[in-house]
Design a protein that fits this description.
Length: 119
């Protein structure tokens, strides 16, 4: 399902890939996030995604009442409090994605798939 915004002149349709790409770019700017992760269902391996494929580490769902649900699969920095990283990620993504899309975020789930040392 795609996001819908009704303007006075018509409807604006936002694809979930656009939301995922923007949310991924906001997420990797957050302190403590090394990058987005892709999990292979076949063998269970976690792979750090490059900057040009950030949307693959994010699942976007639009609910029936036109609200956004986001699932982030992230790799975090070693030695940083995961709760602090998650709070920072939720606050930044919620603010920026809502301002970008004009739609409300209903829920953000964060799945920590790995830990890496900061280079």
């Amino acid at each position: 399902m795609k996001g819908r915004i009704d303007s006075g002149l018509g409807q604006i349709i936002i694809d979930t890939d656009v939301i995922a790409t923007y949310a991924g770019s906001v997420a990797v700017e957050c302190f403590g996030i090394i990058g987005m992760a892709a999990v292979s269902m076949k063998d269970g391996l976690v792979k750090l995604l490059r900057r040009d494929s950030l949307k693959h580490g994010i699942n976007v769902k639009i609910t029936e009442d036109n609200k956004i649900r986001l699932d982030f699969h992230v790799i975090v920095a070693y030695g940083v409090n995961i709760s602090t990283i998650a709070d920072n990620l939720v606050n930044n993504v919620k603010y920026k994605v809502e301002a970008f899309t004009g739609m409300e975020i209903e829920k953000i789930n964060i799945y920590v798939e790995g830990v890496r040392a900061i280079d």
